[in-house]
Write a structure and sequence with these properties.
about 80 residues; mainly alpha
Length: about 80
């Protein structure tokens, strides 16, 4: 469930096909996301899941899997 919502957020921000986004997908290398894109994705995550992710935690998010794990930890 978290993955599907996250895929939609990423696809919307980066204008990519949802099916191109897998747990192994990296934001910078695979999707070409820059720091502004990352910020927009982070804001989308926080809004969608009603959570807060610190700057330190956000810096550790490199892949979609990292983001899903962070979301699951925050909502549990």
């Amino acid at each position: 469930m978290e993955l599907e919502k996250l895929q939609k957020i990423i696809a919307s921000v980066l204008n990519v096909d949802v099916h191109e986004i897998t747990p192994e997908t990296t934001f910078a290398e695979d999707l070409g996301a820059d720091s502004l894109d990352g910020f927009q994705i982070l804001m989308g995550i926080e809004e969608e899941f009603d959570i807060t992710i610190s700057n330190e935690e956000a810096a550790a998010i490199v892949s979609v899997k990292d983001a899903v794990e962070k979301i699951k930890k925050a909502i549990s």
